[in-house]
Each structure stands twice: as C-alpha cells, then as structure tokens.
Amino acid sequence: MKTLKIMLALGMLSLASLSVQAVEIRDHHKEVIGKDCKACHDKGIKQFPSDQACLQCHDVSELAKQTARSEQDKWQNPHNNLHYGKELPCQECHSEHETKKPLCSNCHTFKYDKHKE
Amino acid sequence: MNKIDLLGRRKFITGLGIAAGAAMVAPAMAVSEKATGIKWDQEIEIVIIGSGFAGLAAAIEAKKLGAKDVHIFEKMSYFGGNSAINGGLFAAPVTPMQQKEGVEDSVERMVADQLAAGRGIADEALLRHVASHAMEALQMTLDAGSEYHPYLQQLGGHSVARTYQTTVSCGAGITQPLLKKCRELGVNTHNRSKFEGFLVGEKGEVLGIKMRENYHFGEDQPGKIIHIRAKRGVIMATGGFAQNVNLRMAQDPTLTSEVGCTNAPGATGEGMYEMFRLGAIPVHLAHIQSGPWASPDEGGFGYVSNYSIYNFPHSIAINRLTGKRFMDEIADRKTRADAELACRDEQGNALPPILITSYADSKKHPNTEKVIKYNVGWKFDSVEELAKHFNVPLNPLKAQIEEYNGYVKTGKDAQFGKNMTKAKDKYIKAPFTVVRLWPKVHYCQGGVMVNTKAEVKDSFTGEPIKGLYAAGEVCGGIHGVSRLGSCSIPECMVMGMTAARSMMKA
Ligand SMILES: Cc1cc2nc3c(=O)[nH]c(=O)nc-3n(C[C@H](O)[C@H](O)[C@H](O)COP(=O)(O)OP(=O)(O)OC[C@H]3O[C@@H](n4cnc5c(N)ncnc54)[C@H](O)[C@@H]3O)c2cc1C
C-alpha cells in the first residue's frame, strides 16, 4: 500500500515545476517528491499545503505506532496526544522550508530526539 | 523581548513568542459592515465561532433541539482552545458524587461562594443560572463519554467539596468526547477558519459573518474571505484575550510580555472586540487573573502549576537575592503574583523566586516525578547544594529554614501569618525538591455583557442585539473580581447550551 502511494507520488514527478526552493530537511522527501512542488503544495505553489497533503503518503495511525511511548508517558505521543488525539495537522510541528519546534514545547519540555527542527 | 532573555536559562515563554509573532503578521482587520448588497457565499442555520467548551456544548444542544445545519468554525488548525489544555476541574452542586460522599450542597451555596470571591461585583443572576444547570452540563459530558476521578475535591474559596476532575486531569477529557459527539450528531467542524466581522441588517441585527478560510495562524498567508448568512444567528464562543499582550496591557499595564501566559495561542480576543464595535457592553475587562503557581522553565501551564498548587501549603517560597521568604505561600492569587513580580536582582532584572519543598512531602503528587524528569524542577540532597545551584546566600537561607521549621512546630507563622494547618509535621528538610516561580496571565474575567438567555446586550438600547449570542470566557461580569477554580467549565457549557436553546426558540 505504502509503495503504491510512493509510486503515485513519483508519477507526479513528470509534472515537475523547475522553480525550486530545495526541500532541504528530509532526505526521503527529496527522493519522493524531488522537484515537484505540487506534490505537497496541492493548493497552489504560493499556498501552504493542505492539511491532507501529507496524508497522501503518511498514515497517522502508523506514525502514532512509531512514536508510541511507555504507559506512563503514553499521552506524550505527538501523533496521538492527550489534547488533540490524532488530529493535529502535520504542519503544526513539521515544515520543509524552515525549522519548527513541536507544538508540545508551548507548555512542555518533552524531548523528541528524532524530531528535526 | 529583551527583558525575557534576561531571565536566562531557557527560552522563557514559548507561547508568548507565537502570540507576538502572530500580532505582527496579522493582516489588516476586516470589520463589521452592512449586509446591503452582499453576495452570500453560503447559508447556514447555526453559526458557532470557537471550538472550546462553550462552542461544543452549544452545537450538541442545538442538534438535540432539532437544528439541521450546525457549523463550528475554529481559526486554529486544531480544535479545543483553552478548554483542551485546561485542568479538567468541573464544579457542580448537588451531584451524585456529593450524595455518595454525604456532602451537603445547594445552588444557593455555590452562588454564595462565588459571590464572595467576586467581591461585590459578580452577576448573581448569571451565577444562579449557571449553578442551576451545572448538573445538566456535567451530564452532557458523561453522556459523551467523559470519565472522572472517583472522588471530589474542595478547591480554594469553595465551602464544600464539589469539584469533579477528569481521569486525565485535563479538559481534553471533555473536549475530545464532545468533539466526537458533535461529529456523530452531524455537526460540521471547520478548522483554519477565522471569524473577521459581522454583516448586519438595517436595524443593526446580525445577519451573517465574514469568514477567512484557509487561514494559517501566525503565518503570512492571507487566505480568502467568504460571506456566510446565519439563518438563526451567530454564537460567539471565542474565549479570552490573555495571549494578546497589547490588549491585556491596555487593561492592566503591569501585564507586560514579561509576565507569561497559560493560555492557548489562539486566545487573542478579536472576536470580543468585534462585538464591542457592534455595540456590545464591555464589563470588567481589567480584571485579569494571573497564576502565581507557574514556572518560567516551561511554557504555559506545563507540569509545575499543578505541582506547586498541591505543594504550596507545606513549602517555603524564597527570594534568591536575600535567601528569605517574601510572602504567605497560600495567600490569594493576586497577592502572591505581585510579591513574585517584585523579586528582582540589584539591577532590577527579574529574578524568579524558588519554592522549596521536602521531597518526602512533594513526592505524593503525581507530577513531582515528571517535574524532575523533564528538567523543570530539581532534587537536592543538601541546603549547600541547593544554595549553590540557585546562587542563594547560604547562611540566611539556613537561618530562614530553621526559623520556618519553628513555625511548623508552633503552628504560627510570625513572618507572614500563613495558615499552618496543612503544614503540620511537614518540616522543611533534605532531600529537597525545588521549582522556580513566575506568574502567568491565566483568565480574563471581563468580556461582553450577556443576560441569562446568552443574548448580547446593546450598550445604547439596552436591548439584545438580534441574531447575536455569546457564551464562555468571551463574556464578562459573571465572576466579578476573581473567578473560583473549576467554575469556568460549568459556566462555558451551561451558557453554550443556553445560547442554543434561546436561538432555537427565537
Ligand atoms: C491552562 C489552563 C487551565 C485551566 N484549568 C481550569 C480548570 O481546571 N477548571 C475550570 O473551570 N477552568 C479552567 N481554566 C479556564 C477555562 O479553561 C477557560 O476559561 C475555558 O476553557 C474557556 O472556554 P471557551 O469555550 O470560552 O473558550 P476556549 O476554550 O478558549 O475556545 C475558544 C476558541 O475560539 C477560537 N477563536 C478565537 N478567536 C477566533 C476567531 N476570530 N475565529 C475563529 N475562532 C476563534 C480559539 O482559537 C479557541 O479555540 C483553565 C484555563 C487554562 C488556560
């Protein structure tokens, strides 16, 4: 399923626009979306990607599993947290063209070692 | 912002940075205008702005009463506002748990407690209306699946135990089930949708709103304005303005950016100010409550707030410059917040005081472990170690601890007259846990004036503004000078339900 989605995204490469502001942060994004800005910017290049754009390839429940924490800290899972469940739009914590802090850091000092700011 | 850096150690208040940033990039505000000649993009039966307790309860109640087409609009990307980060403490009189625990309570008694805290300027009729329907609101959360600890708590200012708390000790234990319920009932929920003004008819009645779609809070992307016709009317449930430093300083100049904030970033108040532009009556705007239990080492409410609320009765608060106590650790919120703000170094820079507790006593609170684990509090084996870490003069500190332990023994605090009942047998001794304190703006008592039908009154005619209802923290005057803990949830929910009822009858 996942590979299929990646293939689909790769397929869109042919539509690639060449005006590129490099996708610098996540290497795997470089491979998948390459120079096709519209793979993410589904509402137009000058607009932020829709909240659904990331979900073309990523599955929230899958992500929640990957970032699960021990029973005591279970609600600190950014992809399934106490305050917003699995509903937090990706862009609250992630960004491709700039650095971002996780939303939790508004109030908490949790460490997310794998989170790229 | 420079002042904040002076506090050193950590980035002081992360949430504040977000709010300030948002204020800078906010596009020129659209304002209310006449609806004459407006082309409506959409027509909706009931428009609700804001997705906290008030908005969610209004939507559920409207659906129950037969509304077909209910929409909640939320400017943030996520739903829930302050309600989703709140402490989950819910006061109601004459509840099943009170019966079980044999607590004698009544609507009148809850109102009397709140009137005392309101110091003569609270709105008795509204308080009575809320207390009379609080149990219905609690029932709405239970029906939606909220779970509560199996015991009641008695918070400061309440004469009996009447406070429920969700098992997750957070308002999300209510907002999550209510949001789910809304969707089950077919309520339409829209995120990234910012209310920007009313569209009014010939007689000043609210016919609809201007809504900015595809809005990204704090980002420089304008989105698009659409015009929405609200057939039955608009319920404003947009919360308080504690995150808007300019607006809160306009009311109370001491609430500079140096004072942090416990609120969600979206608590910026433009919905309230737009109602004023329309003619709503401003009440009690300058009564803004700061929490003296917060820490500068984390943002918002974090973990320390509940930790220190629990520990204050058996702890000492120390001025790091002098090594001495500087306040009654359980005085009212304002007294303590002011005393903390006065703790400064020789240059006048903020020097957040410290709260010292015996580990043996602090560890009974579930947050203690987390406070230490997440580096917002520290454990020390000796006074020497503690004094060195915070650069506190050692001998005065030692003398202070000894003096205070004398008060624990005699039960009389000769320094500040603290009520020592709860400090009985709890001597300050090693090992210690320590957190830093600094007040944060927490709750806005002021807002627009509403009646017991949740109708917004017009300042000149004294009549309700047709088509306009408001509920929750955006309303003012209900609590007066000081809101009692756990009394906002019942207010928000009852007034949200009330707004829906009034609207369906109108
Ligand atoms: C950390 C914390 C702990 C608390 N603990 C307790 C407690 O234990 N018990 C208690 O009784 N009270 C507590 N309070 C107070 C209580 O939580 C709030 O007063 C209450 O949540 C307010 O609910 P509301 O529905 O009025 O507003 P909110 O829950 O704040 O919701 C308002 C919503 O409107 C949105 N909004 C604002 N402007 C616009 C606009 N222009 N367009 C669209 N949407 C907009 C906001 O983004 C927000 O989501 C606490 C508060 C905080 C901050």
TrEMBL record, chain A:
Domain of life of the source: Bacteria
Keywords, alphabetical: Electron transport, Heme, Iron, Metal-binding, Periplasm, Signal, Transport
Subcellular location: Periplasm
GO CC list: periplasmic space
Range of residues in the leader sequence: 1-22
Cofactor(s) the record lists: heme c
GO molecular function: metal ion binding
Record Pfam families: Cytochrom_c3_2
Domain Tetrahaem cytochrome as annotated: residue spans: 33-109
Predominant subcellular localization, coarse grouping: periplasm
Matches recorded under CDD domains: Cytochrom_C3 (cd08168)
Protein's name in the database: Cytochrome c3 family protein
Organism this protein belongs to: Shewanella aestuarii
TrEMBL record, chain B:
Major site of localization recorded for this protein: other
Localization per record: Cell envelope
InterPro entries: FAD-dep_OxRdtase_2_FAD-bd (IPR003953), FAD-oxidoreductase_2 (IPR050315), FAD/NAD-bd_sf (IPR036188), Flavocytochrome_c (IPR010960), Succ_DH/fumarate_Rdtase_cat_sf (IPR027477), TAT_signal (IPR006311)
Cofactors: FAD
Cellular component terms per the entry's GO annotation: cell envelope
Protein name in UniProt: Flavocytochrome c
Keyword Oxidoreductase included in the entry's annotation: yes
Similarity field: Belongs to the FAD-dependent oxidoreductase 2 family. FRD/SDH subfamily.
Domain of life: Bacteria
Domain FAD-dependent oxidoreductase 2 FAD-binding: 46-489
GO molecular function: FMN binding; oxidoreductase activity
Keywords attached to this entry: FAD, Flavoprotein, Oxidoreductase
